[in-house]
Structure formats: C-alpha cells, structure tokens
Amino acid sequence: MGRQTTASSQSRRLRSTKSAEPAVGRAGDTKAGAKKTAAKPSAKSPNTANTATVKNTATAKASSPKTTAGTKRAGPKKSPAAAKKATPKKTVGTSSARTGKQTASVRSTQTTHPLNHPRAGAARAMLSSVRREFDRVSAYPLTTYYLILVSVLALTSLGLVMVLSASSITSYDGGEGSSFAYFNKQAGFVAVGIVLMVAASFFPLHTWRKLSWWAMLLGVVMQAAVFVPGFGKSTKGNANWIQFGGFQLQPSEFLKIALAVWLGAVLASKYGKMTTFGHAMIPVVPGIIIAVGLVVGGNDLGTGLVLMAMSLVCLFIGFFPWKYFLLLFGALAAVAAFFVFSSQNRLQRITAALTGHADQTAADVTGQAWQSNHGLFSLASGGWLGVGLGASREKWSWLPEAHNDFIFAIIGEELGLLGSLAVILMFVALACGLVRVILRSKSRFVQIATAGLFAWLIGQAAINIAVVTGLLPVIGLPLPFVSYGGSSIVASLLAVGVILSFARTEDGAPAAIRVHKDRVRSSFAVLARKRKK
Fold first, then answer.
1. What 3-state class would DSSP assign to 44?
2. How far is CA 306 from each of CA 89, 138, 214, 290, rounded to the nearest angstrom?
3. Inter-axis angle of helices 181-201 and 143-171, to 10 degrees?
4. Is residue 403 within 8 Å of residue 170, measured between CB atoms?
5. CB 53 within 8 A of CB 94
6. Long-range pairs, 176-182, Cβ under 8 A, ≥24
7. What pLDDT sits at residue 342?
8. Integer Cα distance of 482 and 506 in angstroms
9. What is the pLDDT at residue 275?
10. In sequence order, which residues have a C-beta less than 8 Å from that of residue 201 and are 6 or more positions away?
11. What is the pTM assigned to this prediction?
12. What is the predicted pLDDT for the residue at 430?
C-alpha cells in the first residue's frame, strides 16, 4: 500500500509538473516572452510597462520551485536564471528610457520655449534676410551703375547747398551785389556737367579707346597754352588757367581724364609685351613726364601730385614691370621733393602742420597756420549736430576759401559730426562703385582707366579732408563734387560719365537696360491711354 500510494502521488506530481511546464517554457521562450511583455507596455505608458515587468518577475519566481521539484527535462536550473537575467535588464532599460524621455522632454521644453531666446532667434532671422537681400542686390547687373550715379548726384546736390551757404557772405561782400552770385555760377556749371555726364555714359567702349590719343593730345596742348603770354592767366601764384574773353578754364582738370583713358588704352594694348626697357617705357613714361611737367611747371604741385598718383595706380593695375615701376616711382618722388624743398612757402606749410601751429599768434592773419587753425575751429564748434545750416560764423571772412578748398570745414560747423560722416559715407559708396567696376569688368582697358579715375576722385577727396582736419599741410585741392569751381565740377561729372559707360558693359547690364526701357515705354503708354479717356 505504501508503495502504491507513493507511486500514485508521484504520478500526480508528474502530471502537475507537465501541466505547469508550458507556462515556464525554455530559456529562449522566456526571453522572447519577456521582450514582448516589455515592448507592448512601453508603447502605451511607463506605468503599464512597470506593472507587466513586476508580474512577469513574480510569475517566474512562483513557478521556479515547482520546476525545480520536477523532472530535469524541463530545465529547472536554466529557466529561472534566464528569466531573472532578462527581467531585470528590461526593467532597468524601461526605467532608464522613461527617465531619458522625461529629461529630453524637459530640455526640449526649456530650449524651444519662445520666451527663452526670442531676441537671438529674431536677430538670426533678420541677419539671414539682410544677407539674402544684400546678395540679391549685389548680383543685380545695374547695381554698380546706380551706386555710382546716386552717390555722385547726392554729393553734387549737397555741394550746391553748401556753396550757397559758404559763399553768401563772400559773394555779397566781394562786390557781386548778391549772395547768390557764386551759387548761380556753380548751378550753371553743374547743369553743363550733368549734360556731359549723361552724353558720355552712352558712348560705347571702343569709342573711348579710339578717342584716347586725341584726348591726351588735346589735354597737353591746352595745358601748354597756360604759358602763352596773353592767353594764360595766373591766380594766387599758380599759372594754371587759360582765358577766353570773360571765360576761364583750368585745363589740368580735363588733363586728368585724358591721362587716365590714355594710360588705360596704351597699357591694355601692351599687356604681356613690356619685356624690354624700350617697349615698357615708350610711350608711357614720356606721356606721364609731359603731363606732370606742364602742371608742376605752372607752380601747381597739388594737381601734379594727383597726376603722379593716377599714373602710378594705372601702372600698377596694368602690370607694369616692377623694376621699371620702382624706377619711375623714385623719379617722381625726387621731383616732388625738389619742388617742395625749393619753395619757402611749401616748407612753411609743412613746418606749420608738423609743429601743431604752436607759434601762431591771433594777430597773424596772413600766417601759414591761420587757415588751418580756423578750419579746426570751424569743425570744433559744430559739435554733433552743427550750429544749423547757414549759421556758420567762420564764413564771415574768418576762414579763407570757405566755399572752395575748406568747404568741408563749413560742413562740419553747420551740419556737425553727423553731416561730416554723411559726406564721407557718400564718398565711400562712390569708392565701392568704382571698385565694383574694376573687379567685375573683363576689359583690361576699363580696369586701368577706372583705377586712374579712382585715384583722382577718391584720392583727392581724401587729401582735401585730411588737409581740413590738420592731418596734412595745406595743398590747395578742392573737394570733388562739393567745392566751388566750374572746371572742377564739369571735369568730375564728365569723368563719372566715362565710368558709367564702363559700368553699362558689365555682364547682364545691356539686358537689364532693355528691360527698364520696356517698362518705361509701357508706363508712358498707360499714361497716354488715361489722358485720352
């Protein structure tokens, strides 16, 4: 009985163990089940995943003793260990994933919240939009054309206003009988210059190359006419004028245009061929010597220095051989030094600029530092916003040449520092336009000629401003487009017309001009229809 009871009880245990085996399964099945159990709740919520993980762990612990007590075929040792290894890993992974999600959500909320970095985002967006707009405008073919034209017209308009303001007292006191005398003359010269500028801007490129030799010859002949008795006229020690009845002309201003265009044509045709001394020097160097010599011979060293600078810049852009370039540079520097040290007046100007006018007395009206001192007084009294347009005190015969060489001082006094900076920014805009012509043109003639005109207009403006501010000794050069002077304003506007004709040859510019013409015609057609109705 005891054996039968034991056998029956053992068989019952075996049946119960077999019925429990499918719930536990093999180690691989346990892992797969644990993966499915951990994967399903994680898609729903972290709490469900934790609950399912705890239930699986409890089931594995509860079934492990029964399996151990059973047969060896069910793998009682491997299944609990595999279940234990799989279950904690999934539990830890689930909790870490939940913690990571929570941390990431907190960080994303802090980073992307609109109240955290609104200014930085707005600044980046604004900078990117400005950059895109700048690239779009810069790539437009007529940007160079309009940049030069607008800056020149702005400077010319400001010059008319300031000539009226600076010359009103001198004009009335000088026997003209009207405060508008100088202004009326300047306005007439500006009108002539604008007509010439517009006409020159339509000249094709090959026309300027054909006219280069004739322009240089005419400029030299006109400059040589200064020394003809009864025909040339000397003003303030400079024999640099010719007179036709009641009309005066300063030929050196037009010689600047002729020299730049002539050097551009000659150096462009000789590019890559200046290998020998004779081929490099002729006819470039004789032409420069004749032009500079005629101007300096009339005792106008300031204009001579401008012509020297123009020549050197053209030679540099035209790839003139370095050994000959340095030789010519040394020769021009020696000529300038000779004329400086041979004149007591020029030496006194340099000494006054270097000593800071320390020995100048208030009673010395005709002293070398009088004009420089009162130019600085005018700038200093202007302050930030100036004393007001027309309210200058230095123009009441205190500052010599207030409407001419020292008109920038009157601008600083009446319009203040902001007005002076506005004038400088206009010249910077003009300089940027000229540089764009040089860089974007494929013609070496255009590059060399524009570089020479750049050295004239921008270099002379820089010298004039440096003289007024006391950085250089008084040289006697007008401020282009702003100072009073018929020859200066007409020649400057004519030079701008030449540059505008160069800007019209930029890639894509002819097509853009045709589009503009079509738009203008359509606009006039619409206006004509409205008038008929």
1. helix
2. 86, 31, 22, 14
3. 160
4. yes
5. yes
6. 182/403, 182/484
7. 87
8. 29
9. 85
10. 497, 500, 501, 504
11. 0.75
12. 97
